[in-house]
Request: fold
Amino acid sequence: MRRGADGRLEKVFAAYHPDLERVQRHADFVARCTTATRLYIADHAGRVVRRLL
Reply:
């Protein structure tokens, strides 16, 4: 858990994999199953590659 920019608590899950297609497939699955309000794919430096939710 950490505090976001707005001060609210947020849960952060991270997984690292060099195959972006595999990451995309997993992220699509997570997007269907989650109640999260925000879901991003980011690179190793933390820059957002794609916002899913």
Remarks:
- Residues 24 and 46 are 16 Å apart (CA to CA).
- Residues 2-51 form one domain.
- Helices lie at 20-33.
- Residues 20-33 form the longest helix (14 residues).
